[in-house]
Predict the structure of Peptidase S8.
Amino acid sequence: MIAASPSSAAPAPATHASPAASAARAKVPTHRLCARPAHPGYMSCNAVARTDIKQQLSLGPDAAPSGYGPSDLQSAYNLPQSGGSGQTVAIVDANDDPNAEQDLATYRSQYGLPECSTANGCFQKVDQNGGTNYPAADAGWAGEISLDVDMVSAACPSCHILLVEANSASMDDLGTAVNRAVTMGAKFVSNSYGGSEDSTDPASDEKYFNHPGVAITVSSGDSGYGVEYPAASQYVTAVGGTSLQQDSSARGWTETVWGSSAGGNGAGSGCSQYDSKPSWQQDTGCSNRTVADVASVADPATGLAVYDTYQASGWNVYGGTSASSPFIAGVYALAGTPGSTDSPASYPYSHASSLNDVTSGANGSCSPSYLCTAGTGYDGPTGLGTPNGTAAFTQ
């Protein structure tokens, strides 16, 4: 079991590898929740499940779930325990999770979080057209949905959650769901999926992701060095992943890149083939869009407690950048409503000193090396760093 954290810890400006953190980077047995896309234009969820930890439908009176819970993440990222009231974070995924609301209730009850249900107006589930004609259920995407709603809850317990279920994992259906979420008023939209880049991506950018005043987060990928779309969109905050471990530093935690120099596993990163570089991105080794912008915990070896019962057996430990995207969306919501004409993806670039700079680890081999190897300042796998409070996610 991943150890519980103290209730608070002092922030630190940078994190460095410790022996414990290095050990945590060792690969653990996992399986992807969603199959890799079989056709161009289709996406896969970026969630992975630990297979070496026994799933449990219920816990004993003195037992706790394996994996990090909300108090751990609030401590690690110096987040307030209140805030976000009245904000709505939208989750966009493919297919249906019939058990989404009841599983969310179990997660929140376990950790003493406020109720978030249809009955009290906190939770809403719609199809991509805004109705209740839900798509076909799918066990993999249901696990992804459980991970997403639990991570929003962990970051922002007072936020409302809007789950928009796309008819399929095609970019067109998922993009339609993004537009639906914005139409329904969400100012924060998380997308925990990705697929191969192609020449149609700039057109999809304009059609689905160009929403001033809306913070849209996207997972960077789980296959190590390499770029996925829509993380490559110039209009989104691309979210990479770290390994997170408690230590004896002033912060109380240390982070390294999720992945290894061998590649093939870990957070995605790199230089886009097709998407233009946004004006606020200043790195010089990539003339196009560079992935990622920021990061948070994603390594299943230092993974998250998630409750999922649709063709699953309750408490699991999940990881992947599908964990970091909804978590960062929740942090944006804690920080407050974006300016109506702003590009919220630019905010961290104006407040880099308010992030924990991750300086160790790699997700592959590349040139220039910063695209796959952490170092002081900006790097591909973790972007500018991880949250140290909410200041980096404000105007």
Q: What stands out?
A: The CA atoms of residues 92 and 156 lie 17 Å apart. The longest helix spans residues 139-155. The chain is about 20% helix and 25% strand. The radius of gyration is 18 Å.
